[in-house]
Write a structure and sequence with these properties.
Blueprint lengths: L10 H13 L34 H15 L3 E12 L2 E12 L2 E15 L2 E3 L7 H12 L6 H6 L7 E13 L17 E6 L10 E3 L29 E5 L4 E4 L16
Parallel strand pairs: 3-5, 5-6, 6-9
Antiparallel strand pairs: 1-2, 2-3, 3-4, 7-8, 8-9
Length: 268
């Protein structure tokens, strides 16, 4: 990343990320889940250049990108965003987006995620998160918020007729592993686009560069990235995200990964 730009503020990266969001497939199978249809974004005008000023976390940045794309979409209108649902003085949750499309109000829950195939599960790079847990929460809790009595009482003028998920990101296979890919939840195989490994398994027949946190969506040109010094992988304590010289992304995880695998969700 250009040192002149703080995280999530490089204009060329932001514009590339808008295009990435339009073209990247859902992580989840559209045959099994109520996902926002991919064709909805094709073709769509790109937003005018804007500056992101939110928190330097990729989830907040992704939601901002989507907000901008909805705003310039000829057939979508953003009715509301981040609607807090309160019950007995406590916040029960927040609805990500209420969107009008073809005359109907839709409830969208959105996320950008990166998962690694391990032991029949898709685990997050820090192994504290898992795709099965995320999907269960989005279906059972987040999408249910727009039917909750507290929402209906607080916002009687909003009655969504459809509920959809928009989960993008990337899935990573275990390098040189013979294990089959996880069988739940059903994923879109077009979103599988990288490898992961422990430090001692990183191939030596290619060059690697280091990705900053705001370069995880649209992958920059290899020549523009700082090159990996392999000595930095000795005693690795945090997962690092790399790009090889064939433009394939990699996660290299610490030798003790995954130290604490989250329990399976109850729906399984």
């Amino acid at each position: 990343m250009n040192d002149a730009y703080p995280l999530f503020s490089n204009p060329s990266q932001i514009n590339a990320d808008f295009s990435w969001l339009q073209n990247q497939f859902s992580l989840l199978s559209d045959k099994r889940f109520p996902v926002v249809p991919h064709h909805l974004w094709q073709p769509t005008l790109l937003p005018s250049p804007a500056a992101y000023t939110g928190p330097s976390r990729i989830g907040f940045y992704y939601q901002w990108l989507l907000n901008q794309l909805i705003d310039c979409h000829p057939h979508l209108a953003l009715e509301a965003e981040e609607i807090q649902i309160n019950e007995a003085g406590k916040t029960r949750g927040a609805i990500d987006f209420l969107v009008r499309y073809q005359g109907q109000l839709e409830h969208w829950e959105v996320a950008v995620k990166f998962y690694l195939a391990y032991d029949n599960r898709w685990l997050g790079p820090n192994a504290k998160d898992a795709l099965d847990i995320k999907v269960a929460r989005m279906l059972d809790h987040q999408l249910a918020l727009s039917s909750h009595p507290s929402f209906c009482q607080q916002y009687p003028h909003w009655q969504p007729s459809k509920k959809r998920l928009m989960v993008q990101g990337r899935l990573y296979r275990h390098y040189h592993s013979e294990q089959p890919l996880p069988d739940w939840p059903p994923v879109n195989h077009d979103s599988i686009g990288g490898w992961w490994c422990w430090p001692d398994a990183l191939p030596t027949d290619r060059e690697f560069a280091v990705l900053a946190r705001d370069q995880w969506l649209s992958l920059p040109a290899f020549a523009d990235l700082p090159k990996l010094e392999r000595a930095s992988l000795q005693g690795l304590s945090r997962t690092c995200h790399l790009l090889d010289d064939s433009l394939t992304p990699w996660f290299v995880v610490p030798s003790d990964w995954p130290a604490n695998v989250p329990p399976l969700p109850s729906r399984q």
